[in-house]
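Quick one: structure tokens for this chain, please?
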Amino acid sequence: MNCLTNRLLLKDIELFNFIYTKARCKFSNCFMSYITHLGGAVFTITLPVLLTIFGDQKLDQVAFEMLLVLISSNLFVHIIKRIVNRSRPYRVLEDIDLVKIPFEEYSFPSGHTTASFSLAITLSFFFPSFSFLFLSLSFLVGLSRIYLGIHYPSDVISGILISIVFSLAIHFNSIS
């Protein structure tokens, strides 16, 4: 088991290094620094609140479900972060230049990725014709977390999986 774990960790670092180094330029630094905020608390909380304020009854239902998924998945993420205690890549690996101020909290799983995919999946249930847009933006949020040196790929993948589980559970529980 230890050998398998070590192999997975090495592959995680290899993939991190590939993503972190291949597309580095001023435009990417700027773009990724902005797109990453679509998974931050300000955006992910503001969006459902605005849907409630300016929307109709259907949008109220969407916003309520979004908030349920966000709260439950984020709670789970914070519990897992404290159990796993994985250091962020910039604290462990050499030659990681941070574009923004570093995060002090643990790395695994990615909260920004979980939040953005939670919103994207929930919105996709209600507005399936926009699913590609919602999920693409969330994918970019996850990619930005790796690109910015804040998360490993496995942090992002686990955030996606967590958001899938919570989004499905809450959506199909609320419609039954």
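Residues 125 and 171 are 8 Å apart (CA to CA).
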